[in-house]
Amino acid sequence: MKRIVIFALLLLVTLLGLSFALMNAESVQLNYYFGTLQAPLSLVVVLAIIIGAGLGVLASLGIVMSQKRELAKLRKSAKIAKEEVSNLRSLPLKDTH
After folding, report:
1. CB 30 within 8 A of CB 44
2. What's the pLDDT tens digit per position in 7-47?
3. Contacts of 36 (CB under 8 A, 6+ apart)
4. What values do phi and psi take at 67, rounded to 5?
5. Residue 8 Ramachandran class (φ > 0 left, ψ -120 to 50 alpha, else beta)
6. 40 Cβ neighbours under 8 A, 6+ residues apart
7. HEC string of the chain?
8. Which of 23, 48, 68, 92 has an alpha carbon within 20 to 30 A of 75's alpha carbon?
9. Other CB atoms closer than 10 Å to residue 4's CB: what's the count?
10. Using one digit for the tens of pLDDT, what is the confidence trace for 50-61?
11. CA distance 71 to 82
12. Mean pLDDT in residue range 63-78
């Protein structure tokens, strides 16, 4: 059932993308630092979205890596604490009477 839903969503996104490309097929001139390029509008928009998403991932990479390091440090600390509690529980109780 899950595969059917995923396939249906993928098909819907593909059809929306195809209709977007057909509706925006006119050619536009893209001016950049090293020259100009003639390309379909839909291609320019899709490339801009892909480049923006890639830059967003790169921008958040530092935060994600620092959080992973902190998580590893906290897991190590929790493991040490759990071993210490286990060792303390295995010690015999001394009666002071």
Report:
1. yes
2. 999 999 888 888 888 888 888 998 888 889 898 888 888 88
3. 29, 30
4. -65, -35
5. alpha
6. 21, 24, 25, 26, 27, 28
7. CHHHHHHHHHHHHHHHHHHHHHHCCCEEEEEECCEEEEEEHHHHHHHHHHHHHHHHHHHHHHHHHHHHHHHHHHHHHHHHHHHHHHHHHHCCCCCCC
8. 92
9. 8
10. 999 999 999 999
11. 16
12. 96
Question: What would the two tokens of residue 53 be?
Answer: 């998403």
Q: Is it the case that residue 69 has pLDDT exceeding 70?
A: yes
Report residue 64 as tokens.
Answer: 């994600």
